[in-house]
């Protein structure tokens, strides 16, 4: 109950208004679906009339930017508001919400759907959405993180990307490739506040520097030498060789800059590759190489993440909700996207069978293996130098992290913008984190 109240209090402060896509059908049953607004989800909305026509089920999408979507979906689900029949969540929420009894167990639905084949899911992605070996959300796409870099700019500068780069090497490359006169940043890194925005890439940097959010005794470690070194590195790299307006740049903004030729490197989610190689929107198709997430003290440093679909326990028509979810996450949907929009637009990192499709293998030859390698390497034993008491890699898998991570990200963003020093940002962040840590000490 303590965690539920904390979570509700945090999300209540963050909820903002909805921006819906409107009803796409007029069937006897209409589902309201809350999703995150990004290119892959927009493709699903565009294809949705085919589902409506085949089933008679109407669909109304509520599509929101990531920070707003998280807040709205969390508040609705935690309070059993019943506004949504299907919600887009991640491997951060799924196990916690399943344990709280907020989500429908999807195992019976999958078992009764011929050809759905849950065994086709990449094992680590499947496990991340499970609670007590039962899946409570089904993945739409999965990802780790890696580094995209402009091969043509590297060649022109006489640089070679190592097979396994370190962060110091990347910083050196960024300095040499930074071309402010021509509007090309050495690197693009997220600086936008949000526990799922700047905190995601930054925490992977902190992990490989040997930092922890909490030690095994739930002592906050945000002013430790390792965390401080990582934060200074990240902030200085962005301030010296990153994009203009970095303190408000997230995944979408960095994607636009990189695909329009305004950045020499971009460290972010592996799902970026489909956008980078999409000729309908990218100016740098075929010019990118993809390297593993850079390291310092660890074997690897990439994250593990999946956007997935779940059914709130209070949803009124669970059978119709599952029909939609099965349509959006089955093998036929992959084929539909590939043939309709091109194989670079296919949701990656979820189904093993996707990587056996000849057309996809050809389109994704530059990034398919780096994506799968990143997902396979993404576990705490390989990406963290020290043990921690919480699940998660780029997030701390506790309910309070939605509020804590957002607060810390605001401090990080302020440091990137030059409004305060890294030391002051971390001192304030430490106070936030220790309050959370103390609450866990009390129940040990």
Structural features:
D-Maltodextrin-Binding Protein, domain 2; 2 domains; 3-stranded antiparallel sheet; 444 residues; disordered N terminus; globular; alpha+beta
Written account of the structure:
By secondary structure, the chain is α+β, with helices and mostly antiparallel strands. It folds into 2 domains: 202 residues, Periplasmic binding protein-like II (D-Maltodextrin-Binding Protein, domain 2), CATH 3.40.190.10; 223 residues, D-Maltodextrin-Binding Protein, domain 2 (3-Layer(aba) Sandwich), CATH 3.40.190.10. Helix content is 45%, strand content 13%. The strands form 3 sheets. A 6-stranded mixed β-sheet has the order 1-3-2-4-11-7. Strands 9-8-10 form a 3-stranded antiparallel β-sheet. Strand 5 and strand 6 form a beta hairpin. Helix 1 packs across helix 3, helix 9 packs across helix 10 and helix 18 runs antiparallel to helix 19. The protein starts with a helix and ends with a helix. The N terminus is likely disordered.
């Amino acid at each position: 109950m303590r965690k539920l109240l904390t979570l509700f209090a945090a999300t209540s402060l963050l909820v903002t208004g909805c921006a819906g896509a409107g009803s796409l059908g007029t069937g006897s049953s209409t589902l309201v679906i809350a999703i995150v607004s990004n290119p892959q989800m927009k493709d699903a909305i565009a294809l949705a009339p085919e589902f409506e026509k085949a089933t008679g089920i109407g669909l109304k999408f509520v599509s929101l930017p990531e920070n707003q979507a998280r807040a709205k979906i969390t508040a609705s689900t935690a309070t059993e508001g019943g506004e949504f029949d299907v919600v887009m969540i991640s491997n951060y929420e799924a196990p916690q919400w399943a344990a709280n009894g907020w989500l429908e167990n999807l195992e019976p639905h999958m078992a009764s759907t011929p050809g759905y084949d849950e065994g086709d899911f990449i094992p680590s992605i499947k496990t991340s959405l499970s609670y007590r070996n039962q899946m409570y959300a089904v993945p739409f796409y999965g990802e780790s993180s890696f580094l995209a870099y402009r091969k043509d700019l590297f060649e022109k500068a006489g640089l070679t990307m190592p097979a396994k780069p370190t962060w110091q090497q990347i910083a050196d490359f960024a300095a040499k490739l930074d071309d402010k006169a021509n509007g090309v940043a050495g690197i693009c890194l997220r600086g936008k506040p949000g526990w799922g925005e700047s905190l995601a890439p930054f925490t992977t940097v902190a992990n490989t520097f040997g930092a922890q959010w909490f030690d095994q005794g739930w002592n906050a470690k945000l002013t430790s030498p390792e965390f401080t070194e990582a934060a200074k590195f990240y902030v200085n790299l962005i301030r010296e060789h990153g994009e203009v307006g970095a303190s408000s740049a997230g995944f979408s903004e960095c994607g636009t800059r990189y695909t329009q030729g305004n950045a020499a490197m971009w460290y972010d989610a592996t799902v970026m590759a489909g956008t980078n190689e999409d000729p309908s929107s990218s100016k740098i198709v075929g010019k990118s190489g993809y390297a593993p997430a850079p390291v310092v003290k660890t074997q690897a440093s990439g994250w593990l993440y999946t956007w997935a679909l779940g059914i709130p326990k209070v949803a009124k028509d669970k059978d119709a909700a599952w029909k939609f979810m099965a349509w959006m996450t089955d093998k036929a949907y992959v084929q539909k996207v590939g043939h309709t929009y091109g194989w670079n637009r296919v949701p990656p990192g979820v189904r093993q069978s996707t990587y056996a499709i000849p057309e996809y293998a050809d389109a994704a030859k530059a990034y398919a293996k780096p994506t799968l390698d990143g997902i396979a390497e993404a576990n705490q034993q390989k990406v963290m130098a020290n043990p921690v008491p919480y699940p998660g890699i780029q997030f701390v898998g506790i309910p309070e992290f939605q509020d804590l991570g957002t607060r810390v990200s605001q401090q990080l963003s302020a440091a990137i913008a030059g409004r305060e020093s890294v030391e002051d940002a971390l001192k304030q962040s430490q106070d936030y984190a220790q309050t959370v840590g103390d609450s866990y000490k009390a129940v040990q």
